[in-house]
Amino acid sequence: MPERPSRREFLAALTAGSAITVSGCASVVDTVGGSESEKPTESERTSVPNTSESAARSTETQTATDTPQATETEAGWSIDDVTISEPSVSLSPVTLPEEQTAYPTMGDDEETLTLYGSWKCPYTREFVLSQLPDLVDEFVRPGDVSVRFRAVAYRGREPFLGADAPRSTRAGLAVWETDPESFWTYFTYVFANQPQERYQWGQPELLTRFASAAGVSSPSKIRQAATSESAYSERVERTLTSANENEIWTVPRVVYDGDVTAPTLDAESTREQFETAADE
After folding, report:
1. 250-251 and 20-21: which strand pairing?
2. To the nearest whole number, what is the mean pLDDT of the chain?
3. Secondary structure of 20-72 in the HEC alphabet?
4. From its phi and psi, is residue 160 left (phi > 0), alpha (psi between -120 and 50) or beta?
5. Which of 19, 192, 226, 240 registers the highest number of CB atoms within 10 A of its CB?
6. How confident is the model at residue 175 (pLDDT cuts 50, 70, 90)?
């Protein structure tokens, strides 16, 4: 079983604005202590806060507004400082499902592996940039399996890895909904240029810049989704329910046929999942 960080290590990470374990990114409730009693309750695990609850809970959470979004997210750091460079890896072009799916999917095979991750998680970034391209080349491009991405936006009633995580999740779903052929390019652009998770960088302005750099059509629709807390709320909640059912407390995790692996901790087990799916 993966070793959890000590309370001292966790508090140091929390001071830096992060919640990271040795095998991936976890929420605060799943990181401290580690006992079963500290895991969120059934209602907490699957509840997406509504707009009024979210606004009352935190002044940091930005709601839909006609006022331009502030770009300053932490003293001495701004999203204006982010330079977007072309990724060194590519997941495009790749075959897309013949029919539109609710969540981003590559490949058109019924054997589907699901990647649970977070746009803000550096461990998800590590998997996306160092392992996923080879798996796509070996298993997805030949038509043997499909891969679906589901971004975890909340844990219980709290945003997962920062108040800007839900905005990043909504922006990604908007890219998939409006321009699926550009999604996997957008996907690699965001992870290749991902700022540190302690910064609240998932602002509508930067997310729109990512979309523009990736060639996404109608970047304004991405901004609208990022700023609207009601956008894609049902899909976000279904992902929380699914993650709960698979007992996923840390990301990234890959799920196939009820089997869950941690790719940044045990890459071989994840590869075996792909091989099993390809053999079906």
Report:
1. unpaired
2. 83
3. EECCEEECHHHHCCCCHHHCCCHHHHCCCCCHHHHHHHCCCCCCCCCCCCCCE
4. beta
5. 226
6. very high
Position 57 in a domain:
no
User: In this structure, are strands 154-155 and 24-26 parallel, antiparallel, or unpaired?
Assistant: unpaired
Tokens 């609710």 -> residue: 102
Which residues share a beta bridge with 158?
Answer: 155
Cα separation, 226 vs 63, in Å, equals 9
For 133, the domain range is 7-49+85-279
The span from the CA of 158 to the CA of 165, in Å, is 10
In angstroms, rounded to a whole number, what is the distance separating the alpha carbons of residues 248 and 152?
10
Q: How many domains does the chain contain in total?
A: 1
CATH of residue 226's domain is 3.40.30.10
β-pairing verdict for 146-151 and 112-117? parallel
Query: Is 69 contained in some domain?
Result: no
Q: For the chain, how far is it from start to end, CA to CA, in angstroms? A: 29
How far lies 87's CA from each of 10, 14, 118, 129, 137, in Å?
Answer: 31, 29, 18, 9, 17
The pLDDT of 265-271, averaged and rounded, is: 98
List all residues 6 or more positions away from 233 whose beta carbon is below 8 Å from its beta carbon. Answer: 48
pTM of the full predicted structure?
A: 0.81
Whether residue 177 lies inside any domain: the answer is: yes
Residue 162 lies in a domain: yes
